[in-house]
Amino acid sequence: MQIKGKAHKFGDNISTDHIAPGRLFHLRTNLPELAKHVLEDADPEFAKKVQPGDFVVGGRNFGLGSSREHAPTIIKLAGVGAVLAQSFARIFYRNAINVGLPVLICDTSQIDAGDDLEVDVSKGEIKDITKGITIQAKPLPSVMIRILNDGGLLEHFRKHGGFALDG
Amino acid sequence: MGKTIVEKILSEHSGTDAYAGDIIIAEIDAALVQDGTGPLAVQQLQKLGMVEAAKPDRTVLFIDHAAPSPRKELSNAHKVLREFAAKTGAIISDINEGVCHQRIVEDFMNPGEVLIGADSHTCTAGALGAFATGMGSTDVAIGIASGKTWLRVPETFKVHVTGKFKKGVYAKDLMLHFIGMIGADGATYKALEFSGPAIDAMDMSGRFTLANMAVEAGAKAGLFASDEITKEFLESRGRGDKWRPLSADEDANYEKVFEIDVSDLEPTVSCPHTVDNIKVIKEVEGTKIDQVYIGTCTNGRIEDLRVATKILEGRERHPDTRLLVCPASKEVYLKAIEEGLIAKLISAGAAIINPGCGACVGVHAGILGDGEVCLATQNRNFKGRMGNPEAFIYLSSPAVAAASAIEGVIADPRKYL
Ligand code: SF4
Question: What ipTM was reported for this prediction?
Answer without folding.
Answer: 0.94
